[in-house]
Specification:
By secondary structure, the protein is of the alpha+beta class. The chain folds into 2 domains: 115 residues, Lipocalin (Beta Barrel), CATH 2.40.128; 142 residues, no CATH class. The protein contains 8 helices and 8 strands, in the order H-H-E-H-E-E-E-E-E-E-E-H-H-H-H-H. The longest helix has 32 residues. The termini are far apart.
Length: 271
């Protein structure tokens, strides 16, 4: 009875030989495989990955706790880790080439963890989405500044100094990119509004979600049209100075935004 209700504490763990290679082999971002892969709910993976990484102490692995915080684990056997202050265990499955492909947490035996592919790492997508949004907010502010200068230029009381205008191709590309920026910013605002009531997103109706998901599609179409006029203006040899480079950069960023949103099933209607 005493052994059942008052068991002996587990033995103290010590780093096993070759722990450096094994800890390096299992470090990275992992996700539970019981998740959506084909619907917009895949976007949950942007914030739900488990970042497993080595600690400063020898042989210790830092694993995010499902309830918050981190667990400190050490190997009991090669690729079998145990929590230093608890009973949680983490086992890794290796393939024939010695790469860790799956992980299993003892509290959740019904689910497995899969290593996240590089193309779905939050460290790649979050900077793209955040940086693109900041850039497009700047595009809208610049467009508003041009509008104010145009109004002042037509005013006899507060005339604005004349500025050289780009060619028609570059000018159309710039106007289309303002529409691209407005669509992406509106998408971000709409996403924040929808996320304020996440249960409504999952239970429907999906009218608001459909409208919000249409905005990146519109932005991508406008960006492709801007790219066409940009290339046409370059072929014509239109004068534009730095505007050529700015338009090219904005088209490239829009392409990265579209790729990122497509990766997470947020480009179009994936239900």
């Amino acid at each position: 009875v005493l052994d059942q209700y008052f068991p002996q504490p587990p033995p103290t763990l010590e780093p096993l030989e070759g722990w450096e290679e094994r800890v390096a082999a299992v470090s990275g971002t992992w996700r539970f495989n019981r998740a959506s892969y084909t619907t917009f709910q895949k976007a949950v993976g942007l914030v739900s990955g488990l970042r497993i990484q080595p600690a400063q102490d020898e042989g210790v692995l830092l694993v995010p706790h499902l309830m918050g915080g981190e667990m400190r684990m050490m190997e009991e056997e090669p690729f079998l880790f145990r929590e230093l202050t608890g009973e949680t265990r983490l086992a890794f499955r290796m393939d024939e080439e010695g790469r860790a492909t799956h992980a299993f947490l003892s509290p959740l035996p019904m689910m497995a963890l899969e290593r996240a592919h590089w193309s779905t790492l939050p460290a790649i997508h979050l900077p793209i989405l955040a940086g693109g949004l900041v850039l497009f907010v700047g595009v809208l502010l610049a467009g508003a500044g041009r509008l104010v200068r145009g109004i002042r230029r037509g005013s006899s009381r507060f005339p604005a100094p004349p500025r050289p205008e780009p060619g028609p191709g570059l000018r159309r590309a710039r106007h289309l990119l303002v529409g691209t920026a407005a669509s992406y910013v509106a998408f971000a605002v709409g996403a924040v509004v929808l996320l304020s009531d996440p249960w409504a997103i999952l239970s429907g109706p999906f009218t608001g979600l459909r409208a919000v998901l249409a905005l990146p599609v519109l932005a991508s179409l406008l960006a492709m049209a801007a790219a066409w006029w940009w290339l046409k203006g370059i072929r014509r040899g239109e004068e534009g100075g730095w505007l050529r480079w700015r338009i090219g950069a904005m088209v490239a960023v829009s392409g990265l935004m579209a790729w990122s949103l497509h990766t997470w099933n947020l480009l179009g209607w994936k239900f």
